[in-house]
Amino acid sequence: MNTQPSARPRHRGNGRRAVVTGASQGLGRAVATGLARHGWEVVVTARTARDLLDAADDLAQTTTVTAVVGDVTDPAHRHDLATTVAALGPVDLLVNNASTLGPSPLPRLEHLAPDDLRTLLDTNVVAPMAVVQALRPHLADDATIIDISSDAAIGAWEGWGGYGASKAALDHLTAVLAVEHPTWHVHAVDPGDLRTAMHQRAFPDQDISDRPLPETVVEPIMALVEARAPSGRHRAKDLVPAAIAVPS
Fold it and tell me: Is 1 contained in some domain?
């Protein structure tokens, strides 16, 4: 689907610009809201136009927001996203949040269809790196890149093989990207179990109301960004300001 950029400039931010993928709901929307609250100008993208534009309307109450509807796995959408960003100016922060869980209920590996595994890898591994490539000409020299990971990347649980493998691969690419671009701040962030629609799909017959809301991890992630911390892999629950190493 072709993207339809939608700009809603109402407030002047702090001069910093962020791009957040998968920003129409869940963690992506919460992070975009947190950035707006801290004065960042935000470019948000997601597949569902209605949800994304609803999020953009909320964000526009506090900052300048540009919404670009589309799927990060679509090269045409990534091109349109890059074109939109080029007209705005340098990107200081990219949050690769867009992701897919795969089939629900989660299948054992022996039942995971190869096409479903390909979709997981395309969405959770290939697309984030393709977004980085598309936006590379527009990323600031000291840009921060956050790839949203998962504890499934390092744990072995029944049903989580496909999703976990995709996040493990993303972790590795994130680490290599940090080595290849030492002036960037490149992080893989495991937000933990959150009360999101995607997490509910992982447990379709369970009540997940005991999980924390996505908003609870926004300030830890913001602390990581504001500290200009060295590249690395982090658990959101460990990201308290006093615990983040800041270069001397």
Answer: no
Token representation of residue 32: 């975009």
pLDDT digits (tens, 9 = 90+) for 136-160: 999 999 999 999 999 999 999 999 9
Which of 131, 148, 146, 24 minimizes the C-alpha distance to 75? 131
Q: Is residue 90 part of a domain?
A: yes
CATH of the domain at 111: 3.40.50.720
Contacts of 154-161 with C-beta under 8 Å, sequence gap 24+, read 158/106, 158/108, 159/105, 159/106, 159/107, 159/108, 160/106, 161/108, 161/109, 161/112
What are the angstrom distances between the C-alpha of 99 and each of 14, 31, 47, 223? 29, 15, 11, 23
Residue 10 in tokens: 């109402």
Domain count, the chain: 1
Domain residues for 109?
6-243
Whether residue 229 is contained in a domain is answered as: yes
Q: Looking at the annotation, which residues are catalytic?
A: 163
Whether the pLDDT of residue 5 is over 80: the answer is no
174: Cβ–Cβ under 8 A, 6 or more apart, which residues?
145, 147, 149, 186, 187, 188, 233
pTM for the model: 0.89
